[in-house]
Amino acid sequence: MTYTDQEKTAIIAKYRQGKPIQELCSEYEICARTIYRWAKKYCGIVPGEKRALTVKECDMLLHQVKKLENIVAILKTVNCTAHAPLKEKLHELELLYDQYDVHTLCEALDVSRGTFSGSQPTRPGGLRWETTGQASRCSRTCGTSQ
Questions:
Q1: What is the mean pLDDT of the chain?
Q2: Which pTM value belongs to this model?
């Protein structure tokens, strides 16, 4: 049987009010795993409700804040916007390549990682020059260092 979002939230509300999961399972003919999945999906933090964060949730939020801080710093540093031509964005990404991870750089300027990786100059024999700070290193396109 398919349940609407309203029916799912009503079932989850009963669960949150303390109705045993087994009663809900037999009443609505659904398995406990489904109820737990719905609870995770439809039952976010209710405004005004106080609860403690789990360690995993706290770590996830801290990681997200750090990533967003890096994106803001990138956007303040570059001389173009996310709507600039791709060539300009790639140039700015190359300038910051040694300061931030590729995922964050590409997300900040809305460039796919494949496009950015493909824009890096290559040498004959599949070797790619990567500049990090003042030193340059040569690596194979598969990512191994020499």
A1: 79
A2: 0.51
